[in-house]
Design brief:
Layout: H1 2-19, E1 34-39, H2 53-62, E2 67-70, H3 89-101, E3 104-112, E4 119-123, H4 136-145, E5 149-152, H5 170-178, E6 183-188, E7 191-192, H6 195-203, E8 206-210, H7 217-220, E9 231-236, H8 241-249, E10 253-257, E11 260-262, H9 265-273, E12 276-278, E13 283-284, E14 288-295, E15 301-304, E16 314-316, E17 321-327, E18 335-345, E19 348-354
Parallel strand pairs: 1-2, 2-3, 5-6, 6-8, 11-18
Antiparallel strand pairs: 1-9, 3-4, 4-5, 6-7, 9-10, 10-11, 12-14, 13-14, 14-17, 15-16, 15-18, 18-19
The structure holds zinc ion.
Zinc ion is lined by residues 41, 43, 71, 110, 119, 153, 212.
Length: 359
């Protein structure tokens, strides 16, 4: 008896020590909001994934995420010979672990159909069993009745859209007309669909990016090829489930994948400004000025198309600084650049104006 009692604290200590390595992410912010790092599309053994649900929480914590959704398929259970079909099981198993790790666990499911309509995640649902319906529209209706955020997943996935080009079908237009579609994956797994930027802009939908992980995340997005999984950045009033949901319906989202950020035009400029700072010129030789440009984020900023009298291209490294030497005229007018890795449309990147700080 005595032996058992002493074993308990040692076991707890080992558990805490093994899990105590969270990566802190530095990403752009929107003034007045907190940036929540999120992955809203992942699978477990309860559909076609290969991991137990609580592993998703540990992975998310180590990866520096704030919120996740486990979205097992409603209509596809390849492991059912060994694991019973239970659409709430993953959420039930992962919930207490999420509470221990301070991870916001959104309850979700993936409605899984042929294209059209394809695959759609229902997020913030309460009763996944109610989505088990032959009629697709009835399944979405049931989700929406629970206050769901409906995300159209990987619309250009080659298994369903062989040329990789996403297309809106009548069923998607019908969903939009009813107010039953709220976001589209611009980025999924390791691929992205440029036209989704325009679809979201034209239809007032949130742009989303998720891992759609089925195996172990650190193996599917392994270093050195990947420094982080693809994720949705959500600009919420607070770090709570309610604020997260409000922000998503209000379309305050961006997608971070590789060294790129995809964001709606109206959010892109403030996001860039939140991490890039131009210093006061520290040298002036009467013809040219020298000033520093620094970046506090994990995302290098790749500038091109600079005007005459300034560098044509500049990369401000992640957590780094460069010195800009430019014509003195830029004391009175901004230096203009395209930011090649901040994507605002299928054919557009962010344009910025940079002015050295005033003395
Ligand atoms: Zn999926």
């Amino acid at each position: 008896m005595k032996t058992k009692l002493t074993l308990i604290p040692i076991f707890l200590l080992i558990t805490l020590t093994l899990s105590a390595q969270r990566h802190i992410l530095s990403v752009p912010e929107l003034p007045g909001y907190v940036t929540l790092k999120c992955d809203f599309h992942m699978h477990t053994v309860f559909s076609d994934g290969n991991v137990w649900p609580n592993q998703r929480v540990g992975e998310a914590w180590r990866d520096g995420l704030d919120a996740i959704a486990i979205t097992d398929h409603i209509e596809y259970q390849p492991h059912k010979q060994y694991i019973p079909v239970d659409h709430s099981a993953a959420w039930k198993i992962a919930s207490p672990i999420a509470a221990d790790y301070n991870i916001i666990l959104v309850k979700g499911s993936e409605i899984t159909r042929k294209m059209p309509p394809g695959h759609l995640n229902a997020l913030f649902i309460t009763e996944p069993d109610s989505l088990v319906k032959d009629d697709f529209m009835k399944a979405v209706e049931a989700a929406v009745a629970q206050g769901a955020f409906i995300e159209w997943n990987h619309p250009g996935w080659k298994s369903q859209q062989p040329d990789g080009i996403p297309r809106m079908y009548d069923v998607h237009r019908e969903l939009i007309a009813k107010g039953w579609l709220h976001g589209i994956e611009y980025y999924n797994d390791v691929e992205y669909y440029p036209l989704v930027m325009d679809m979201c802009r034209d239809n007032q939908l949130a742009i989303m990016g998720n891992s759609d992980v089925h195996g172990v995340i650190s193996e599917e997005f392994a270093a050195p090829v990947y420094s982080h999984r693809p994720m949705t950045l959500v600009f919420a009033k607070e770090r709570t489930m309610e604020s997260l949901k409000e922000a998503m319906f209000a379309r305050r989202t961006a997608v971070w994948y590789g060294d790129n950020l995809a964001a709606p035009e109206e959010l892109a400029a403030p996001l860039f400004q939140s991490v890039i700072t131009a210093g006061i010129p520290f040298r002036d030789d009467g013809k040219r000025i020298w000033f520093e440009l620094s970046n506090t984020s994990d995302i290098p900023m790749k500038l091109s198309g600079g005007p005459e009298g300034a560098p044509a291209t500049l990369t401000v490294p992640a957590h780094g600084m460069v010195v800009v030497r430019a014509d003195r005229k830029f004391l009175a007018q901004p230096v203009t650049y395209a930011v090649d890795n901040i994507i605002t449309g299928s054919n557009n990147v962010l344009k910025v104006e940079i002015s050295p700080a005033k003395k």
